[in-house]
């Protein structure tokens, strides 16, 4: 099991964040055979992008647009450093 501690509360206020995360997970699954690793990495990427988007906006409307920009701009190193990925043994 794994957890991601990054993210922002505005993710719950914007239509399409969950659908976008599903598409991101599918893309990651195409490149990574371990489905848990793929889903966790995709979630961390979305959450790091959300944190970055929230820092440069003031409300959910502008956040939605900034989130798309940040998904484009975020790097794998930033996701690894800021994603808050934790592996938990069952």
Architecture overview:
- By secondary structure, the chain is mostly helical.
- It has helices at residues 17-31, 35-55, 60-73, 76-82, and strands at 2-4, 85-87.
- A two-stranded antiparallel sheet has the order 1-2.
- It comes from Cutibacterium granulosum TM11.
Low-confidence stretches: none
Strand percentage lies at: 5-15%
The biggest sheet amounts to: 2 strands, antiparallel
Strand order of the largest sheet: 1-2
Count up the helices: 4
Write the element-wise H/E pattern from the N-terminal end onward: EHHHHE
Average pLDDT metric? 94
Helix content: 55-70%
Shape field: globular
- Give the termini separation: 7 Å
The SS-based structural class is: mainly alpha
How many strands appear in the DSSP assignment?
A: 2
Radius of gyration: 13 Å
Q: Notable features of this structure?
A:
mainly alpha; 7% strand; 2 strands; 4 helices; 90 residues; two-stranded antiparallel ribbon
Short recap of the structure:
Helix content is 63%, strand content 7%. It has helices spanning 17-31, 35-55, 60-73, 76-82, and strands at 2-4, 85-87.
């Amino acid at each position: 099991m794994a957890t991601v501690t990054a993210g922002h509360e505005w993710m719950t206020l914007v239509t399409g964040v969950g659908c976008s995360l599903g598409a991101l997970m599918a893309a990651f699954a195409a490149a990574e055979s371990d489905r848990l690793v793929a889903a966790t990495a995709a979630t961390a990427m979305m959450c790091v992008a959300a944190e970055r988007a929230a820092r440069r906006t003031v409300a959910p409307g502008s956040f939605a647009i900034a989130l798309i920009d940040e998904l484009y701009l975020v790097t794998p190193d930033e996701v690894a450093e800021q994603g808050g990925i934790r592996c938990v043994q069952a």
